[in-house]
Design goal:
Layout lengths: L1 H4 L3 E4 L5 H10 L5 E4 H12 L3 H15 L3 H13 L7 H42 L3 E7 L5 H9 L16 E6 L5 E6 L9 H6 L1 H8 L3 E7 L5 H14 L6 E7 L7 H10 L4 E2 L8 H14 L2 E7 L4 H10 L1 E8 L2 E8 L1 H4 L8
Parallel strand pairs: 1-2, 3-5, 3-6, 6-7, 7-8
Antiparallel strand pairs: 4-5, 9-11, 10-11
Helix pairs in contact: 2-5, 3-4, 4-6, 5-6
Length: 354
């Protein structure tokens, strides 16, 4: 087939073992390159990594991938250079392999150290967000589903969105103010793909942790995709793999504008009655989505009636920023407020309950 198509490159849709790859390279013509799915995904990631952390995560995954394949690579080089097994050179090859391995191992641990340092900074930021008690939303979904377009639509962020796989590698967090006044955060993350290489899941752990720390996951699905069910399944699997399956989830079918018939729309709403249909492109359905988000955020709240003395203007400010206010009246003894307060916020009002 390589000859028939004059191929320069063969890509296998599955991961090849190092020896499979070496054997395949022996079969095809000399200048034809053989790579597997993981190597291809790693190459795409390497092209799209822009931040320091993103680049380090990719380099870690690349080196983890390389390590068990070093033998094959050396054997390949050796047979090219030496024109066929010269027995006396064998020892030399072995030691070269040892040197290579040691080098890659050293590189892996130095990248891991650097990543751990960056992760510390990130977890301080994340902790800050946790402590503030803000309701946190993470966007998760198959690559190219429209997560970045959706965060842009929801929060006026300027995240790059492209018609290509893995446009986003680094998480972005933006604030979203709900109509009732409460602020929540939305985080855009890396896309998932069928047969996501495990080296990648491990390397991108700190990025994926952003999903794990969320109060609500918006599972963004390309509603126009022919592989919709399959892609949804993949995302569920990865969420499971990273331990995020216990987090509340809301399915968002995106790209509604691409569904030609009202039939297709009806089918989706019938098979997934709890899902929301939107178009990040046209803005259709976004209001309903925000309403649904507000509902989930509010379901964790306590209904309180409080009288806040005028000296505690700070508490009134918190109420406006963090709570859903039902009614508010300024009386002689202070501000009378009826509000829904999130769990971590309710205690602040305890002493003023009426
Ligand atoms: N027609 C239409 N196209 C959309 C819609 N939302 C996103 N797109 C397009 O779909 C492509 C992918 O969008 P992104 O927002 O980059 O998708 P993503 O989920 O962030 O992708 P990754 O970061 O690669 O995982 C882009 O070409 C968008 O313009 C939509 O509602 N309708
Ligand atoms: Mg994206």
């Amino acid at each position: 087939m390589c000859r028939a198509y004059a191929a320069d490159l063969v890509v296998f849709d599955d991961e090849l073992t190092p020896s499979q790859q070496a054997n395949l390279e022996k079969i095809v013509d000399r200048d034809v390159k053989v790579i597997d799915r993981t190597a291809l995904i790693l190459d795409i990631f390497a092209l799209h990594a822009t931040t320091k952390e993103g680049r380090l995560q990719v380099r870690l995954a690349q080196n983890e991938y390389l390590y068990p394949r070093l033998r094959g690579m050396w054997a390949h080089l050796a047979s090219n250079r030496m024109g066929g097994g010269v027995g006396s050179r064998f020892g030399e090859g072995e030691s070269q392999l040892e040197v290579d391995r040691r080098m890659v191992r050293k590189r892996i641990s130095s990248i891991k150290r650097e990543l751990a340092r960056l992760d510390e900074i990130r977890s301080v930021q994340r902790e800050g967000r946790y402590k503030s008690g803000t309701f946190k939303i993470a966007l998760a979904g198959y690559t190219n589903a429209g997560k970045s377009s959706l965060i842009n639509r929801l929060t006026n962020a300027d995240v790059l969105s492209y018609d290509k796989l893995f446009a986003t590698l680094d998480p972005t967090t933006r604030k979203l103010r709900l109509p009732e006044g409460r602020e929540v955060t939305v985080t855009d993350t890396i896309g998932f793909i069928r047969k996501l290489p495990t080296t990648l899941v491990e390397s991108f752990k700190s990025t994926l942790d952003e999903i794990n720390g969320a109060d609500l996951i918006l599972h963004v699905v390309d509603g126009s995709s022919e592989e919709l069910a399959y892609q949804m399944e993949t995302v569920e699997e990865v969420l499971h793999q990273i331990g995020a399956e216990r987090i509340e989830r809301l399915t968002v079918f995106n790209k509604k504008d691409l569904l030609e018939s009202s039939d297709a729309v009806r089918r989706l709403s019938e098979t997934h009655p709890d899902a929301v249909l939107v178009s990040a492109e046209t803005g259709e359905g976004i209001e309903e989505l925000i309403e649904r988000i507000a509902k989930v955020a509010a379901s964790r709240d306590d209904l309180l009636t409080v009288v806040i003395p005028y000296m505690r203007g700070d508490l009134v400010a918190i109420a406006h920023k963090r709570c859903h206010i039902i009614s508010e009246a300024h009386e002689e003894d202070g501000t009378h407020i009826m509000l829904y307060a999130p769990p971590d916020c309710a205690h602040m009002f305890a002493e003023f309950a009426s």
